[in-house]
Amino acid sequence: MTERLSQQFAFLLEAEKLKSVYRATPLADNSRRENSAEHSWTLALYALVLADQAGPGVDVNRAIRMLLLHDLVEIDVGDVPIHSSDGTAHGSADIQAAEAAAAERLFGLLPNDLRAELEATWHEFEAAQTPTAIFAKSLDRVQPVMLNLEGGGGSWLEYDVNWEQLESRVGAKVSQGLPAVWAWVQDRIRPWFTLRGR
Prior knowledge:
The structure is a single chain. The chain contains ten helices and two strands, in the order αββααααααααα. About 65% of the residues lie in helices and about 5% in strands. The protein has about 200 residues and is mostly helical. A hairpin with a 6-residue loop joins strand 1 (about 20-25) and strand 2. It has a two-stranded antiparallel sheet.
């Protein structure tokens, strides 16, 4: 038990570092950038509150687990904004390889049974093939949109994002798991882009 607890707390203390990883998206009040731990917690809350929007086959409790774990790799890799490098950095082979190595290191701190379970959960989220993972990915994409809208543009301004880019990089993913939510969000964000001729 002593060895197991040592491994569990080694992982938990390492996970604390996520609080020091800052994202491109500012908080809704624009006072500072959101950190990745805040983002993960907020997404778990999104899953809980928007559970009624989940499609058939979605396990909301598993989605919450995914969302609490999904960005732990940023401890090693940092945040890679979806609009950086004209939208090419986020899903690049280099970033995917770095994140997989980070997952192996971080989850490797855990006892073998927990490692297998949590690493499999992380990989399921990344693959986004199951209904639960698609739901979780959709939440991950929509939350920064809401912060950017509330904060007057946020990272959209920083990365000079236009409507078509937002639709292809974000909307396409959100609408897979949360079609009614994306329709609702579009009605609110489209005027922001129209006013700026974007």
